[in-house]
Target: Alpha/beta hydrolase
Amino acid sequence: MSNSPAGDVARSTVRPYSETGRRGPMRTFLRTLDGIPIDSVYDPRPAVYKTFPDTPRPPTRDLVFVIAHGFTGDVDRPHVRRVAGVLRGYGAVVTFSFRGHGRSGGRSTVGDKEVLDLAAAVEWARDLGHTRVVTVGFSMGGSVVLRHAALYGGTDAVVSVSAPARWYYRGTAPMRRLHWLVTRPEGRLVGRYGLRTRIHHRDWDPVPLSPVQAAPRIAPTPLLIVHGDRDGYFPLDHPRMLAEAAGDHGELWIEPGMGHAEHAADDALMARIGHWSVSAAG
Model:
């Protein structure tokens, strides 16, 4: 587990939370260890929040969620903003665009170097004065939060939603289309101009630690694995492999009727995740 800096973080002159003052929203670019500028947004916990049935909110002034979006998402996408909005009922939120997505620099490596992007965002969250950090990732971001926790540590709880367990999976039609998008020149053009996602042309070298290899290395940090039973990308053997690898420190939620990632994670589910995170990170 590495304790090395994640990157050069844009420092803020705004003081951390105190009993008498509140920090406002901020947007800045963080710089990763390999020099990529990452578009990042900080939203403090609001004074007025939306409530959900059976999900009481304990005090969470010190807690921050760092959200890792799925492939082709970015910090300004409506589904990312919606997820952030629900989790703000439970703590502050840091959102960011992975490399190659939105206004961030670089090109997407589809889950490899993205761990450096998340590391910079987590370091920024700590620098803002938060003592508890929960990473929440979706699909590609779900694999990234697993690898980040295994390689870097520094988080108090991890939530992985709709993540793959293993690399190079092509067992479903959506994943075969995604591999075409990533590996073919014409696919990368579609990604750049149709999906606002710039994809790197090089293969992984070396192949990064897989999610299922990362899961047991996260212990004793609490880990929540969430997956829909109607996920069109990754069937249920993926979350079950992750949960088995995680052992006693992992918890598995199979959600009836849920599809894939942020679009399928409704507000009620996100509220349950927020409530779990508050308890687990405590």
Observations:
- The mean pLDDT is 88.
- The beta strands are 7-8, 26-32, 37-43, 63-68, 92-96, 132-138, 157-161, 223-228, 250-255.
